[in-house]
Amino acid sequence: MDVKITKQDAKTFVQLTGRLDTTNAEQFQSDITPLMEDANPDIEFDCTDMEYTSSQGLRLFLMLQKTVSSKGGNMVLKNMKTQVKEVFDITGFSNIIKIV
Amino acid sequence: MGIKKSFSARLSMNIILLTSVLFITTIAVASYSSHTILAEEAQTSSERMLKIIAKDVENQLGSVESSVQSLAWVVKENRMDKEYLYHTVSKIVSENAHIVGSTVAFAPDYFKGEHYFSPYAYLDSDGKVRTKQLGNEFYDYFSMEWYKNSSESGKPHWSEPYFDDGGGEMLMSTYSFPLKDEAGRTYAIITADISLEWMNEMLEGVHPYPNSHVILVSKKGNVINSRQFGRKTSNFYEWADSLDDEEVSAIANGMASGESGMGRFMQGWELSFAIYDSLNNGWSAAIVCHYKDVLARTSKLHLILIMIGLIGLLILFIICYFIIRRHTRPLTEFTQSAISIAKGNFQTELPEIKTEDEIRQLRDSFDYMQHSLISYINDLKTTTQQNERFESELNIASNIQQGMLPKDFPHTDTIDLFATLKPAREVGGDLYDFYVKNNYLYFAIGDVSGKGMPASLFMAITRAAFRFISILEPDMAKLMFVLNNALSDNNATGMFVTLFAGRINLETGEMDYCNGGHNPIVVVPPADKPYYLNAKANLALGIMENFKFEAEHITLEKGTQLLLYTDGVTEAERADKVQYGEQRLLSYLEKQDKAASAETECNALMDDVHAFVEGNEQNDDITIMTIKI
To answer: DSSP states of B432-494 as a string?
Structure first.
């Protein structure tokens, strides 16, 4: 899982590449931890090249979502592939995480 | 492991080699300079000696010359008195030890009627002086060298040495002195024959060095002291030419030209030098020495030096060897200590080092290593013990978890149910539950996010909560609502569980169900193709409190089979990342014998998934539940 974080104005852009699974969930967690502590709460994920996410990945998105919401920010996941979107749909995560 | 060549021996050897090189260089330089000095000295002393010899020979010959010259006046005054002439020549022979014969040879027909007249005195074999008239038609002295030379040149002359084999068997030379009248014409030649034999004795005694000798040659190169070399006569210049040796020829030429000088040459295998000088009568003398003899003294000195050096080197080697060995002995002891430590004796004493050097540093690092090893091993022991404890606890946890899952599968006319759960680790986050109450089957299958111990705890809570709440709340939507709130409360870790729960009326086949973000379940109708049950996803449990769950309803035909599973089935992965997938699952179920028992179906699917991954490591819990009504 390759995580590329860039900041522009009051927004944070995160580009995700590859598979988010058990082997790298911890790394992903430490990658996004600064985003949770950031005072700048708007986050936009580009999921164009994201191949897969495990339930642990879902959990991390969920936690980030909670943090962002508590700070009054918005979190958006963009350009998600069908097979990844399915996971969000099955688990009902699409209901609480904004996917466009 | 044996040591082929010890460190001390090797180091000592290196020191010895270096010292030897220095020693040899010193000896070589000393030797070369002392040789040069000695050779120069030998040449100088030889030159001096040669001068003395030359002077001696010249003196001896000079006495003969002056005897003859003194006679000249007497003969001049009394030349007509034949008797007196005989007396005079007799006197000169008897008075001068070197002179063995003397004559006054008059020019042809000097006396009327006498073509030859030369009164001659000589020593006979008994040592008595005898006289005779020398010249006659058989002894035509006018053509003799001794006469001819002086009479023609008008100057005194020493003849070439000649061997007198008539009487004395001696090497001789004749001094000729011309007598001239007032008009300057030579009218007689006075001669003195001298034996050169004495020169043999004189020169034989001259030996500056063991193999050195003096050689005296006449103007034409005839060797005067040839007897010394065991020959009657010999010609040095001819001999030198015959050698075809440039150096010897150069010496011979120098001598023949009456020069003085020095030359080196090889005499056999010996490098030799020759010092030569000319005499005033045209003769030449040379001293020949072997360098070996000149250098003999220093050679001996060098031999002593070398012996001392060798003994010194040997002693140095022994001393070095022992000193180095003494200083490196701790290394051997360290080896022993290391072996001992390697065998597990961590308390092995290290050798004591009193010096403050590298060996001491080695000892300190060794000591550090030993202590590190001890503490490391202790840590390892503790860790191992902890791990063992943890493992045994994990096993217990696993047993508890497995124990939570109901195993008394119903297998009756109305219901045939079987479930299997295969965790990826000792404990997992998958769960299933079922029970039959009042002809209703309550069931659930779920998957906690993540794996291992944290997931297993959440799973245990979920399983327990489901059992309690489902007993009290038969409405599926309410059940899920309550369950979700229970799990969401104080869920700081953000863990969640996907759960599919349902209730089947075993008489009518009516099923109420609610899906909490779980994989769609498969319905296999008795006479139709299997399909995924269309169920609203709602939301996984534990995420959001007060989420409104919606339950659904379906009536199942008798003989219908339900397959519930977790994503461990559909996401089972081969090494090439290809997943088992929902489509494959559907195709698989289509081919199955619908008459088979739930247990058979369940295990067969597990086997198929196992076969699909081709030995690739299972990275998620797999749960399968088959319900046949």
So the answer is: EEEEEETTEEEEEEEEESS-HHHHHHHHHHHHHHHHHHHHH---HHHHHHHHHHHHHTT-TT-
Structure tokens at B295: 């250098």
Q: Is the pTM of this model over 0.80?
A: no
Q: Helix, strand, coil proportions of chain B in percent (round to 5)? A: 45, 25, 30
d(CA B557, CA B541): 30
Q: What is the mean pLDDT of residues A72-92?
A: 90
Tokens representing residue B380 in the block: 């390892």
Q: Given pLDDT bands bounded at 50, 70 and 90, which one contains residue B1?
A: very low
Q: What is the pLDDT of residue B451?
A: 78
Angle at B497 between CA B492 and CA B502, to 5 degrees: 140
Q: Are B364 and B396 in contact (CB under 8 A)?
A: no
Of the listed ranges A72-76, B119-123, B168-172, B551-555, the least confidently predicted one is B168-172
The residue among B281, B162, B176 whose CA lies nearest residue B219 is B281
At B420, is the secondary structure helix, strand, or coil?
A: strand
Q: Which of B451, B498, B544 sits opposite A91 (nearest CB)?
A: B498
Kindly indicate the confidence band of residue B4, based on its pLDDT and cuts at 50, 70 and 90. low
Amino acid at B145: E
End-to-end CA distance of chain B: 77
Q: What is the DSSP letter of B223?
A: B
Cα–Cα distances in angstroms (integers) from residue B3 to residues B8, B197, B348, B545, in the given order = 11, 78, 23, 78
Q: CB distance B450–A21 less than 8 Å?
A: no
Nearest Cα neighbor of B418 from B604, B198, B571, B251 is B604
How does B411-440 read in b/e, with b if 16+ C-beta sit within 10 Å?
Answer: eeeebbbbbbbbbbbbbbbbbbbbebeeeb
3-class secondary-structure state, position A63 = helix
Alpha carbon of B451 to those of B405, B428, B457: distances in Å?
A: 17, 5, 10
Label residue B165 by pLDDT band (50, 70, 90): low
Rg (CA), chain A: 12
Closest B-chain CA to A66:
B494
This model of the complex carries an ipTM of 0.85
Taking a C-beta distance cutoff of 8 angstroms, is the pair B135, B116 a contact?
A: yes
Q: Could you tell me which of B503, B502, B467, B500 has the C-alpha nearest to residue B486?
A: B467
Closest listed residue to residue A88, CA positions, set A30, A38, A20, A42: A20
Strand partners, B207: none
Cα torsion at B291, B292, B294, B295 (round to 10°)? 110
B520: three-class secondary structure by DSSP: coil
For chain B, the C-alpha Rg in angstroms (whole number) is: 69
Residue B373 pLDDT > 60, yes or no? Answer: yes
Interface of B to A at Cβ within 8 Å reads: 447-451, 494-496, 498, 516-520, 537-540, 543-544, 567, 619-620
Single-letter amino acid code for the residue at B203: L
Residue type for position A88: F
Percent of chain B with pLDDT over 90: 32
- Model confidence at B518, pLDDT cuts 50, 70, 90, reads very high
Per-residue pLDDT tens over the stretch A19-74: 888 788 888 888 888 887 776 678 999 999 999 888 888 888 988 888 888 888 88
Does B539 contact A89 at a Cβ distance shorter than 8 Å?
Answer: no
| Residue A66 near chain B (CB below 8 Å) | yes
Question: pLDDT category, B78, cuts 50, 70, 90?
Answer: confident
Nearest to A62 among B447, B448, B494 (CB): B494
Residue tagged 């070369």 (tokens): B32
